[in-house]
Design brief:
With about 325 residues, the chain is of the alpha+beta class. The protein folds into 2 domains: about 1-175, no CATH class; about 185-330. About 30% of the residues lie in helices and about 30% in strands. The chain contains 10 helices and 18 strands. The chain is elongated and about 85 Å long.
């Protein structure tokens, strides 16, 4: 208990110290470099490199206004936006006095990650280390590269630590959109292996679209252009609940999916999605007797997502559905 009281006394003294420095800066004196751990213009940031003590690397970079992760994997927009906002908003809230410096430095040396920010030309903007959190979990220990004094950092008006905004796994940084690059399609095949009568093919036909039953050759009709475009937009908006470890893909492929979707774009590049109800895989004794809430979704055989039925069901349509909707547009 005495150690906690001592820490808070030191923290208050540190806050008084930083307040004195800020006051000096307002009077025209230069702010010490170690107190500047934010980026005023985050539009300058083109590359963010995150390196942990175990050698794990996250490389985020901007290309044509889009953010990517490591080997040109689309990055999750919300995660990157949140990080950039943190870099803009965070401020040093207290200094670490000499009495506490040794323990904080030990924490940073064993528990920190290195954050390196660069501009479009590869020039360093700022490099710093993110350590653990304060006992009250309202501040985060950080150290600017080149400085000997660690500081406590937070966001004014926000109560909470910032560490988890910097430290995430590669899967957490990855985009959850199933079709991030789809803008137009030439053909979409929807195949329901256990209910083949609902399977169909949608084709771009001139300025409009046509649909045909996949297994009944006599069923074909043209649908309103707006219906086809609306369906295309639904496909591009598909987003997963989470990105999963692809190591499980090989075992899933031995099971039968509820639906297989094969998309051919205008450049004849194909994208395949397979939806496996989680209950069919994890609780096979309940298959057919339990409501499907989620799917294990494989994209192009090498990406695995967890998707929600409530969000995916809008694209699980049948020939009869398109026929009925098209009549409404007549």
């Amino acid at each position: 208990m005495r150690q906690w009281i001592l820490f808070f006394v030191i923290l208050i003294l540190g806050g008084v110290g930083i307040g004195w420095w800020i006051k000096d800066s307002m009077n025209g004196k230069k702010v010490r470099p170690e107190l500047i751990l934010h980026v005023k213009d985050t539009n300058r940031i083109n590359t963010i490199k995150i390196l942990d003590r175990e050698g794990g690397r996250i490389h985020l970079y901007k290309e044509n206004k889009e953010w990517y992760l490591n080997d040109h994997i689309p990055a999750r927009h919300h995660a990157v936006t949140n990080l950039l906002k943190t870099l803009h908003d965070q401020r040093v809230s207290a200094l670490i006095p000499s009495a506490a410096k040794e323990n904080v430095v030990k924490d940073l040396s064993s528990n920190s990650v290195r954050i390196a920010l660069e501009d479009k030309k590869g020039k360093e903007i700022m490099t710093f280390y993110v350590g653990g959190v304060t006992p009250d979990e309202r501040g985060t220990f950080m150290l600017k590269e080149g400085s000997e004094w660690p500081v406590i950092v937070g966001i004014p008006g926000f109560e909470g630590a910032l560490r988890n905004r910097y430290i995430m796994s590669e899967l957490e940084w990855q985009s959850r959109r199933l079709l991030p690059h789809l803008k137009e399609f030439h053909e979409i095949q929807l195949d329901y292996p256990t209910e083949q009568e609902y399977s169909l093919v949608i084709r771009k036909d001139g300025d409009g679209y046509s649909i045909a039953s996949m297994y009944e050759s006599d069923r074909k009709l043209f649908i309103n252009r707006y219906v086809g475009e609306a369906y295309r937009d639904l496909m591009t908006e598909l987003e997963a609940e989470a990105v999963l470890d692809p190591a499980r893909i090989s075992s899933l492929k031995n099971s039968m999916p509820f639906c297989q979707i094969l998309i051919t774009d205008q450049e004849d590049e194909m994208t395949e999605l397979r939806f496996y109800p989680t209950v069919w895989i994890d609780e096979p004794e309940l298959a057919g007797r339990s409501f499907v809430e989620r799917y294990y979704t494989i994209v192009n055989g090498n990406q695995l997502f967890l998707t929600q039925h409530a969000l995916m069901e809008k694209v699980f349509l049948s020939f009869d559905h398109f026929a009925a909707v098209s009549e409404d547009f007549q």
